[in-house]
Amino acid sequence: MTATFVYDGDCAFCTTCADFIERRIPTHARVLPWQFADLDALGLTQRDCEEAVQWIDDSPTKAAGPDAIALLLRDAGRAWHLAGSALQLAPIRLAAWPAYRWIANHRHMLPGGTAACSLPQAQRDLL
């Protein structure tokens, strides 16, 4: 299985970040919105994907949030690998989760974000 990085395709901020990854970060992973992923095959649930970005590979490694971002960066090699390794260092990792949660909770206010980014998936489905 090719590594897969799963994000929220209904969130404009997340999609902007995924577009950046696809343009600028030479990862081997598929970068895929969870709404178009076979979640069962990946061993993920909708709830997993609503809570954080996900990384799945064939080792099988499963990671979420900043841990998933670290693995994506390490997969990209070169300077990206260094950034991903740094993100996995204990003091940085300890700070990364609260920072990730803050960004996730405020993504509707960030560049590329829209009001729909702040709604839970069940409410977005009604739009």
From TrEMBL:
<dbReference type="InterPro" id="IPR007263">
    <property type="entry name" value="DCC1-like"/>
</dbReference>
<protein>
    <recommendedName>
        <fullName>Thiol-disulfide oxidoreductase</fullName>
    </recommendedName>
</protein>
<dbReference type="Pfam" id="PF04134">
    <property type="entry name" value="DCC1-like"/>
</dbReference>
<dbReference type="GO" id="GO:0015035">
    <property type="term" value="F:protein-disulfide reductase activity"/>
</dbReference>
